[in-house]
Design goal:
The protein is built from one helix and 13 strands; from the N terminus they run βββββαββββββββ. 16% of the residues are buried. By secondary structure, the protein is mainly beta. Helices cover 2% and strands 41% of the residues. It folds into two domains: 61 residues, no CATH class; 100 residues, Lipocalin, CATH 2.40.128.
């Protein structure tokens, strides 16, 4: 993380280079994109990134030249949360090969839900989580059976709307789209 001290009315800018060391000289050095304005028109002396409200997304905190401390919470780009998914059923179709799975959230006593494959194998969803980037994840044990509780196969949800979800199966990095099945 780069923390920049800026005086006057200048904006905080994330720099695209580090101490003149190029990525070609050392493969372990990160490669940065173009510089972007982070806080337009703010009189920023210092800033930091920290999760202020416990939502697993980093928020922006800055100290102004006059000594005032300000913050901006990171917006939740996911339009719904896991509580909104309770009792819903989805058809998840893999983008690359049209394989599909049925996903039903919160159907087992004390559980998180069930994934059913096109071969009628059942997998218990054993965990829901939210990553630092604000993405929802859920996982299964990876072997058929509803008694399994270890998290081995993870799915990331990139977007959730009323009737569609998109995400990635992290076991094979394959993207998927899910459509809500209306009861």
């Amino acid at each position: 993380m780069i923390r920049t001290v800026v005086s006057g009315l200048a904006s905080v800018v994330l720099l695209g280079a580090v101490s003149g060391v190029s990525a070609s000289e050392d493969k372990t050095q990160p490669v940065f994109g173009e510089a972007q304005v982070l806080l337009e028109g703010e009189n920023v002396r210092q800033f930091d990134l920290k999760d202020l409200n416990g939502d697993y997304r980093v928020d922006l905190i800055w100290l102004e030249g006059a000594g005032d401390v300000k913050y901006r919470l990171q917006e939740n780009r996911v339009l719904q949360n896991f509580e909104d998914l309770e009792g819903t059923r989805w058809k998840m179709v893999y983008t690359n090969n049209n394989r599909y799975k049925w996903v039903t959230f919160n159907t087992t006593e004390g559980g998180k839900g069930i994934i059913e494959t096109e071969n009628n194998d059942l997998y218990n969803i054993v965990n829901h989580d939210v990553t630092e980037n604000g993405e929802h994840t859920f996982c299964t044990y990876g072997f058929s059976g509803l008694h399994r509780t270890e998290c081995r196969i993870k799915y990331t949800i990139h977007t959730i709307t009323n009737n569609t979800m998109t995400g990635t199966d992290l076991s094979n990095n394959e993207p998927w789209t899910a459509s809500k099945i209306l009861n």
